[in-house]
Automatic annotation (TrEMBL):
Keyword Transmembrane in annotation: yes
Start and end residues of each Protein export membrane protein SecD/SecF C-terminal domain: 433-594
GO CC terms in record: plasma membrane
SUBUNIT field: Forms a complex with SecF. Part of the essential Sec protein translocation apparatus which comprises SecA, SecYEG and auxiliary proteins SecDF-YajC and YidC.
Organism: Gallaecimonas xiamenensis 3-C-1
Annotated protein name in UniProt: Protein translocase subunit SecD
Domain SecDF P1 head subdomain: 304-431
Length: 615
């Protein structure tokens, strides 16, 4: 029989409608300004922590809507952002370094909706407010570090093979020149290096010297590793900042996009994210004369540093350990109440430190603090020039074989010890980064963006509803029902997808799909009209209208879907947000405009004699 749906299709539509309304409903309840407290470094959030927070709020006459433990976190909700910001500052000070206190917007979703994992859509930076950074990784410095590592490995390996060299120096761009003492040693070194080269570097002969060049695949691997490691470390630093729902993602071959919702203190965020502090541990060179080094005669295997009080320190160039192996770092005070940082290494770092200090008991060891600071100048490419600053913060005598735990003293202030411990906990950037773009979006501007976006959606929706009701009458009302269902489904699906974020361009994508959804119904209704004008019976006209329009609607939506997928694949940030809502909207509009309206039309007109259609 024409225009009749089986029962299972109606049941499916009912279930999809219930699903859409349930998962879209949390967006009606809004969000409360809140602070969330989580433990770091194995600190536990429990009832005692809860009591402490309540006490801090009560002592400062701050009224919270609720304070409770939720999903292993402590969450305090407030009536206004002013109370939220004040509470965050007070609670962070009271809780200390063992807890992260983050600004958040807590959904006011009822418990029965939360029990089915329903929550509101996540809002992007342009709607919620916060700071946006676009950071560029200094790949030249990453290559310099790779050169230095290659030189250190060559020195150790050639000594072990008794291939005595007179010099090893970098030629830049991943090239290192090894000069041997005679032709015979050069022949042996060339054979050994070619055997051990693998896919890492190419070996060429140049008289008494051997040239090593990193392969293209190795250079690419170094650049990829520098970018991925920096992304991981920046994520760790964002966690230390205590930001809820941050965005840290790769952009292109050497850039990192960072968005911190709710953060307004850009200076603090830049200080933590862009800092490049790390430590290196070197044995002090006691074999050579310090005076000769000060006068410019620095031995080949040593380097001359300065301590913080300006005194010169001659240290061995060989690095005993770098900050890459630091697993935890906590600020504190020594027995004389001087600031210090307690270091805990990973297992590999502990083994390296143990081997390095095994035969060095009684010898002095220098702790070198390294960071990159802006010079205020710009290079030929227009990018800011960074200066590498190295200073010795401590020279201590190795009293016993060191392992995974030890401490760093000689730090100027408790604040510096706290900042250093934070950076070392989060990790040392493999290569310096520079902030090439910075934007701040205030909460009021975000609220205005939401209002403007919603107004555009509402006005467009009302205009389409009025047009369809007037022009297509009863069928227009059916199309309007499908249009409403389409918007509900988009919001429900966006709320359900964990990684989906609604941005202002995303709202534009929803508005666009609203028009596209009606466009499909316009095609169907016009085909039905054409069939009726041609003298076709009412039931057959409805059937032919839907069937004949389907291929046209499918072709148009498939090409738009391909465009949305391309935008998502190559786009970044807001472009991805637009592509996501567009793609979801295409699928839901196809479903509501074809399956949904057809079900209602079949229910109203199918299976009975109809003399005239209200179309």
């Amino acid at each position: 029989m024409l225009n009749k749906y089986p029962l299972w299709k109606y049941l499916m539509l009912v279930l999809v409608t219930i699903f859409g309304f349930l998962y879209a409903a949390p967006n009606l309840y809004g969000e409360d300004p809140a602070i969330q407290v989580s433990g770091v470094r194995n600190a536990v959030v429990d009832n005692s922590t809860l009591d402490k927070m309540r006490s801090v709020l009560a002592d400062n006459q701050l009224e919270a809507k609720s304070v409770a433990l939720e999903n292993g976190l402590m969450l305090a909700r407030f009536k206004s952002t002013e109370d939220q910001l004040k509470a965050q500052e007070l609670v962070a000070k009271a809780m200390g370094d063992d807890y992260s206190v983050a600004l958040n917007l807590a959904p006011a979703t009822p418990a029965w909706l939360q029990s089915i994992n329903a929550g509101p859509m996540k809002l992007g930076l342009d709607l919620r407010g916060g700071v946006h950074f676009l950071m560029e990784v200094d790949m030249a410095e990453a290559m310099n570090k790779a050169d230095e590592q290659l030189q250190q490995d060559l020195r150790a390996n050639l000594r072990e093979e008794k291939l005595y060299y007179s010099a090893i120096r970098s030629l830049g761009q991943g090239k290192v020149k090894v000069t041997l003492r005679d032709q015979d040693l050069a022949d042996k070194a060339e054979a050994y290096l070619k055997k051990s080269a693998g896919t890492e570097y190419l070996v060429e002969r140049d008289g008494d010297s051997v040239l090593l060049s990193l392969t293209e695949s190795r250079i690419k691997e170094i650049r990829e590793y520098a970018l991925s490691q920096n992304i991981t470390i920046i994520r760790n630093r964002v966690n230390e900042l205590g930001v809820a729902e941050p965005l840290v993602q790769r952009q292109g071959t050497d850039r990192i996009l960072v968005e911190l919702p709710g953060v307004q203190d850009t200076a603090r965020a830049k200080e933590i994210l862009g800092a490049t502090a790390t430590l290196e541990f070197h044995l002090v060179d006691t074999k050579h004369d310090l005076g000769d080094a000060i006068n410019g005669r620095v031995p080949a295997g040593s380097v001359l540093y300065k301590s913080r009080d300006g005194r010169p320190v001659l240290a061995e160039k060989r690095v005993m350990l770098t900050g890459d192996h630091i697993q935890d770092a906590q600020s504190g005070f020594d027995e004389y109440q001087r600031p210090q940082v307690n270091i805990k290494l990973d297992s590999q770092g502990g083994d390296m430190m143990s081997r390095a200090t095994k035969d060095s008991i009684g010898k002095p060891m220098a702790t070198v603090f390294i960071e990159y600071k802006p010079t205020g100048e710009k290079g030929p490419d227009g990018k800011p020039v960074l200066k590498k600053v190295e200073e010795v913060i401590q020279v201590a005598t190795i009293q016993a074989r060191l392992g995974r735990s030890f401490r760093i003293t000689g730090i100027d202030s408790p604040q510096e010890a706290h900042s250093l411990s934070l950076l070392l906990r989060a990790g040392a950037l493999l290569a310096p980064i520079q902030i090439v773009e910075e934007r701040t979006v205030g909460p009021s501007l975000g609220a205005q963006n939401i209002q403007d976006g919603m107004n555009s959606l509402i006005y467009g929706f009302i205009a389409i509803v009025i047009f369809m009701a007037i022009y297509y009458r009863a069928f227009g009302l059916i199309a309007n029902m499908a249009l409403l269902m389409n918007v509900v489904l988009i919001v429900g699906i966006m709320s359900l997808i964990p990684g989906a974020t609604l941005t202002l361009p995303g709202i534009a994508g929803i508005v666009l799909t609203v028009g596209m959804s009606v466009d499909a119904n316009v095609l169907i209704f016009e085909r039905i009209r054409e069939e009726i004008r041609a003298g076709t019976s009412i039931q057959k006209a409805i059937h032919q209208g839907y069937d004949n329009a389907f291929s046209t609607i499918a072709d148009a939506n498939i090409t738009t879907m391909i465009t949305a997928l391309i935008l998502f694949g190559v786009g970044t940030g807001p472009v991805k947000g637009f592509a996501v809502t567009l793609a979801i909207g295409i699928l839901t509009s196809m479903f509501t405009a074809i399956v949904g309206t057809r079900a209602v039309v079949n229910l109203v007109y199918g299976g009975r004699r109809v003399e005239k259609l209200s179309i």
